[in-house]
TrEMBL record:
Protein name: Centromere protein P
Keyword Cell membrane applies: no
Zinc listed as a keyword: no
Entry-linked Pfam families: CENP-P (PF13096)
An annotated GO cellular component: chromosome, centromeric region
PANTHER family per the UniProt record, alphabetical: CENTROMERE PROTEIN P (PTHR28577:SF1)
Domain of life: Eukaryota
Chain segments annotated as coiled-coil in the UniProt record: 6-33
Species in which this protein is naturally found: Chloebia gouldiae (Gouldian finch)
UniProt KW keywords: Coiled coil
GO biological process: CENP-A containing chromatin assembly
Length: 190
């Protein structure tokens, strides 16, 4: 065999090994997720879900009621998007660790605020003490589409260091709104 064919086979083998590694990690993550709950808890959840869904189907008079409710929820969502400027396009949550004291979850969130796209990735530790729930954000990572401005980059770095999601959402809302105004103004002068 020539060297080109051998290299192609070696590349294919390496790609397959990487795919096997990724699938193994995914399988282990799924196994870890399922081990957090005992068989009794799973059965209780299944029974609870079944009783809820049976009650819901009996409680709704017709399909038209469900459609009306869906239209109402869509109208509420569009109102909130119009009011806040935030339109979340995807969200994923993965439980990393669950203990008696709390739960550590990894969140990925992406969306737009007006015309500025953003992606967030962070860990959220929820702790329950005496019927009070507290949450701590850590390992915050922010990716924004339009960060040509050095002040915005500095702000994002500080926000990531502090893990301050509230400040991020408040600030990006104002920034994105004025970003739109600046864009329209510059288009006017062109």
């Amino acid at each position: 065999m020539d060297e080109g064919t051998i290299q192609a086979y070696e590349d294919e083998i390496q790609a397959l090994e990487e795919e096997i590694k990724l699938l193994t990690e995914k399988y282990e993550d799924m196994q870890q997720e399922s081990t957090f709950f005992s068989d009794e808890e799973i059965l209780k959840s299944i029974n609870s879900f079944q009783s809820e869904t049976q009650g819901e189907t009996k409680g709704h008079a017709s399909l038209s009621d469900l459609k009306a409710q869906l239209e109402s929820l869509e109208a509420d969502l569009s109102f909130l998007v119009e009011l806040t400027g935030f339109n979340f396009t995807s969200h994923s949550k993965k439980t990393v660790e669950k203990t008696q004291n709390g739960t550590l979850q990894k969140h990925r969130l992406s969306g737009k605020c007006h015309s500025v796209s953003f992606q967030l990735e962070f860990h959220l530790l929820e702790m329950e003490n005496n019927e009070e729930v507290s949450a701590v954000v850590s390992d915050l990572s922010i990716i924004m589409e339009s960060t040509e401005d050095s002040n915005v980059s500095k702000f994002l770095s500080r926000t990531e260091e502090r893990g301050d999601l509230l400040t991020f959402f408040r600030s990006i809302s104002t920034y994105a709104e004025w970003y739109e105004h600046r864009k329209h103004t510059f288009l006017h002068f062109k």
